TrEMBL record:
Name of the protein: Uncharacterized protein
A Pfam short name: TPR_8
UniProt xrefs under InterPro entries: IML2/TPR_39, TPR-like_helical_dom_sf, TPR_rpt
TPR repeats mapped onto the chain: 436-469
Key word Ubl conjugation present: no
The organism's place on the tree of life at top rank: Bacteria
Keyword Chaperone: no
The organism of origin for this protein: Salmonirosea aquatica
Keyword terms: TPR repeat
Length: 487
């Protein structure tokens, strides 16, 4: 596998992506970290000063830390960041890889630090990575690999909520969603080595910040089949398809995920299976897979959420005493970094205060069935219910939001609008997320209908809510949509 510019070693053995290191890079992406480390150690024994080793060591560490959430390993490995950066700084100044690899190492650590709650340090790494990449672009404008991570940063900075754009300007960070996407497309078209990574970044940005097109969903579904030995692609496709409300398709891919001892342990895949089973209403099976996740996972994210979901598995089947014991676990385990864990903690406190009513059970059933794309089941769950079936304003608001989402997903967008509008009315002057969520979906509907003024008004409405569990993700999506609309 010869990728041209990677053979820099002909002139300088201090930086060479040898064929063995290229194999190691792709083994890391498959999450076969032991095999990758073997290849890296073989290279180290023959060419210990090869700067590419530093980048690949760091790349492997990032994947290990993001998947394992091993805090002791994070504390130990993070001490290597400065020495690795120092070593890369000593590479030839006239090599386009010198700044590129320093930027990549900083971004690896930024992602790991965000996972472990070190946001301030992560932000400094991102800022320094951005400056290095921009400098590399100016010095080596035809060096395509620069644009993989620079494209990512341009899109992310371009998606920053409006009230924070002054911060990016002060720091000298320029966002450009369309420009960033063009940069990622350039890498996919021109760079065989970094193509897959750029493709994954592109799809991730569309899935979690922008919106996926039908063509991109087809592309996503084809990726695991094209590389059946790539665990990362199976995880990636499963999680994104679930987010898109295509859980049955996600389950088919998850069933084929390679999970032998050749791969890094990945308990989160059991959590994803449990989520799908919960959506399908298979509560006992879901409970078992949440158990497996809790037993094998050494990290801290999604633990609160997993006990909350086990609570639901018992509560929705009227095993209330078992449910009560589980809700007590929610407040004792894990952290509240993810929005799911924040929601679980808030629900547990509400439940223990006696403020949760049995009338909410049908709303949970409809919510999870709808989330998974099991729309007939969601529709049946709500059955003959109407707003007047619920006594609490919050439940009335949720009913309208759920009904609206089900109709929207069934292709009846126009009919969904009155339900979203009603949910917004019912959530005025509250911290309930159904209002901003309704406004966001209305924005998407009007955007597809080419009703630009209404779309802009709806997205701005979604961002106007001051405090709720999903504020970060809803604001980011609304901001990205407004940028696409030129607003």
């Amino acid at each position: 596998m010869n990728h041209g510019y990677l053979e820099a070693g002909e002139s300088d053995t201090r930086l060479e992506f040898t064929p063995r290191l290229q194999r190691a890079y792709f083994e890391i992406q498959k999450l076969r970290l032991d095999k990758a480390h073997t290849l890296l150690d073989q290279e180290r024994s023959q060419n210990p000063d090869n700067g590419a080793l530093i980048y690949l060591d760091n790349y492997a560490d990032m994947y290990y830390l993001l998947i394992s959430e091993d805090k002791a390993a994070f504390d130990r490995l993070s001490e290597k960041e400065d020495s690795r950066l120092d070593a890369l700084t000593r590479l030839p100044e006239n090599s386009p890889f010198q700044r590129l690899l320093r930027a990549e190492v900083r971004l690896h650590w930024a992602f790991a630090k965000l996972k472990f709650g070190s946001e301030v340090s992560a932000c400094w790494d991102i800022i320094k990575a951005y400056k290095l990449l921009e400098e590399n672009r100016r010095k080596f404008p035809t060096f395509v690999p620069t644009f993989k991570s620079l494209g990512l940063l341009h899109v992310l900075i371009g998606s920053v909520p409006e009230q924070y754009t002054w911060v990016t300007k002060v720091l000298g960070l320029t966002g450009d969603i369309e420009g960033g996407l063009r940069e990622l497309n350039l890498v996919q078209a021109k760079d065989p080595f970094f193509r897959q990574e750029a493709q994954l970044i592109d799809l991730l940005l569309h899935a979690y910040t922008l919106q996926l097109s039908t063509a991109q969903i087809m592309e996503l579904k084809a990726m695991p089949a094209s590389q059946p030995d790539n665990l990362l692609l199976h995880f990636f496709a499963t999680s994104v398809l679930m987010k898109e409300g295509r859980s049955e398709e996600a389950l088919m891919i998850l069933n084929k995920a390679p999970r032998t001892s050749d791969y890094i342990p990945f308990p989160f895949l059991d959590y994803l299976r449990a989520e799908i089973l919960l959506q399908k209403g298979q509560y006992d099976q879901a409970y078992t897979y949440y158990d497996r996740f809790q037993r094998d996972f050494r990290g801290f994210n999604f633990l609160k959420d997993s006990y909350f979901k086990q609570f639901l598995c018992r509560w929705l089947t009227n095993r209330n005493e078992e449910a009560k014991a589980l809700i007590g676990r929610v407040v004792k385990v894990g952290k509240t970094i993810t929005e799911s864990d924040q929601y679980a903690e808030k629900f547990a406190e509400t439940y223990r205060a006696g403020q949760v009513k049995d009338e909410q059970k049908v709303l949970f059933e409809a919510r999870y069935a709808s989330d998974g794309g099991y729309l007939q089941e969601a529709e049946q769950a709500l059955g003959n219910y109407s707003e007047t079936s619920f006594s609490e304003t919050s439940n009335k608001a949720e009913f309208n939001y759920r009904r609206g989402r089900i109709l929207q997903k069934m292709g009846q967008s126009t009919q969904s609008l009155p339900y979203f509008e009603r949910s917004i009315v019912l959530t005025q002057n509250t911290n309930l997320y159904f209002g901003p969520s309704s406004a966001l979906q209305m924005g998407y509907i009007y955007k597809r209908q080419s009703n630009k003024p209404q779309a802009i008004a709806s997205f701005k409405k979604a961002m106007s809510y001051k405090k709720h569990e999903y504020k970060n993700s809803i604001d980011n999506k609304a901001r990205a949509a407004l940028s696409e609309l030129g607003a």
